[in-house]
Amino acid sequence: MLNTNRGQDPEFTMPTYNTDITNEDKEPIRREDWHFRAVVRDLSDNAGASLLNYARSKDNILSLAQGEGSLTTPDFIIDAAAKAMKDGYTKYGPVLGQPVLRQEIANYYVKHYNINLPTNRIYVTGSGTTAMHLALTAVLNEGDEVVAVTPIWKNLLGAVEIAQGIIKDVPLEDRDGDWHLDLDKLFDAVTPKTQALLIVSPSNPTGWVLPAEDVQRVLEFARARDLWIISDEVYTRTTFDTDRAPSFLDYADEDDKLFVVNSFSKLWAMTGWRMGWLIGPAKAESIIRDIAIYDNMGPCTFSQFACVEALRHGEDFVAQQRDMWRENRDYVLKRFEGNNRIHMNVPKSTFYGFLRIDGVDDCVSFCRELIDEENLSLSPGIAFGKSCKGYLRICYGVDRKVLDEALDRLERFVNK
């Protein structure tokens, strides 16, 4: 019989191994001499992740540094996953997702976008981040350029690096109390080496939204230059004045070189479930399936039935979250009205504020001192682009008491 308690078995003796690693000359091999891929070893610094880890090493930290709200996943979604497990959905499933979920995503686009998508254009993934990796892996060769609108979540830039692409960033402009994208600068950044445009709208961290007329102009430009568009639309339905933001799917033909990334994480408070989806041209289905097979053999099976319930019955919860985000946004703006050092453009979407503080040029040092002195963790702007070293991101999708305490600590620190 297999002994599963070997640690307590006095008759079991662990074998011994020679743990010294040597080369042919029998010299010890130092860890720094181990071979890792250069692209992984030389990934650009992720200041946001580093500060998150630093904050977690402290006690009693109040954190508004991560992109998730305080509400937990609704019970009806959790119950659907539990039922799926009890019904036996704990084994391998289709690599691109359960047919019922792919169809439900298609239904979602009919309802909220008035767009009919065949299910062979819809690929279920283990998170929106995974969807981004699959899209980039599908289209990038080593050395291909990706023109990215920044500020942008660092993980997306890291995904380009891992796919061995080269990032050319085009920063949004902070002027006249709003964020603006100069399309001429975006188009001028394209070179013969450019393979894709990477756009996140609505924007994490600014809440900026690409207007419908600009969506059309970008699409027409990409067609003319034979470029891919990779559109991160995770926050499309977090807008405050409309049901959703404009989507490239509103204007794209079915065979356009377009990938659209989305996720269950934000609207349905499912960050820990790691479920998302990718939409592409039908001819990409077999390519994405082949990559996904070697990535993780497809998304979690039983979680997909929870996602079906989220799409079918989650609108009341979505409305509840959006109301809270809108109220908290307005509250944050009101709080900052009386502080002439803190500046924040009005976010049109998302649950983030991107703050500029007079006199702060090194946001990493500022955030570290904020952790040390006020036990408050925020995300440094430099984590979203090299042009943002004087900014901070605050997540206001949290309980009002938590938000109030965080703002008290921030203002106390700024006013010292």
Topology (elements, then pairings):
Elements: H1 38-41, H2 47-56, E1 62-63, H3 75-86, H4 99-113, E2 122-125, H5 128-139, E3 145-150, H6 154-162, E4 166-171, E5 173-175, E6 178-180, H7 183-188, E7 194-200, H8 212-225, E8 228-232, E9 258-263, E10 276-279, H9 285-295, H10 301-313, H11 315-336, E11 342-344, E12 352-357, H12 363-374, E13 376-377, E14 379-380, E15 391-395, H13 400-414
Parallel strand pairs: 1-13, 3-4, 3-7, 7-8, 8-9
Antiparallel strand pairs: 2-10, 5-6, 9-10, 11-12, 12-15, 14-15
Spans of at least 5 consecutive residues with low confidence: 1-19
Please report the number of helical segments: 13
Tally of strands: 15
CATH topology (fold) name of the largest domain: Aspartate Aminotransferase, domain 2
What amount of the residues lies in strands? Answer: 15-25%
Helix content: 25-40%
Order of helices and strands: HHEHHEHEHEEEHEHEEEHHHEEHEEEH
Oligomeric state of shown chains: single chain
Distance from N terminus to C terminus (CA atoms, Å) equals: 68 Å
Largest sheet: 7 strands, mixed
CATH superfamily of the largest domain: Type I PLP-dependent aspartate aminotransferase-like (Major domain)
Task: Return the domain count.
Answer: 2
| Alpha-beta classification | alpha/beta
**Average pLDDT figure:** 92
List the strand order in the largest sheet.
2-10-9-8-7-3-4
Q: Which descriptors apply to this entry?
A:
alpha/beta, single chain, Aspartate Aminotransferase, domain 1, disordered N terminus, 416 residues
Protein architecture, described:
The protein contains 13 helices and 15 strands. By secondary structure, it is of the alpha/beta class. The protein folds into 2 domains: 47-73 and 316-414, Aspartate Aminotransferase, domain 1; 75-313, Type I PLP-dependent aspartate aminotransferase-like (Major domain) (Aspartate Aminotransferase, domain 2), CATH 3.40.640.10. The protein has a 7-stranded mixed β-sheet with strand order 2-10-9-8-7-3-4, with helices on both faces. α6 links the parallel β3 (145-150) and β4. It is globular. 43% of the residues are buried.
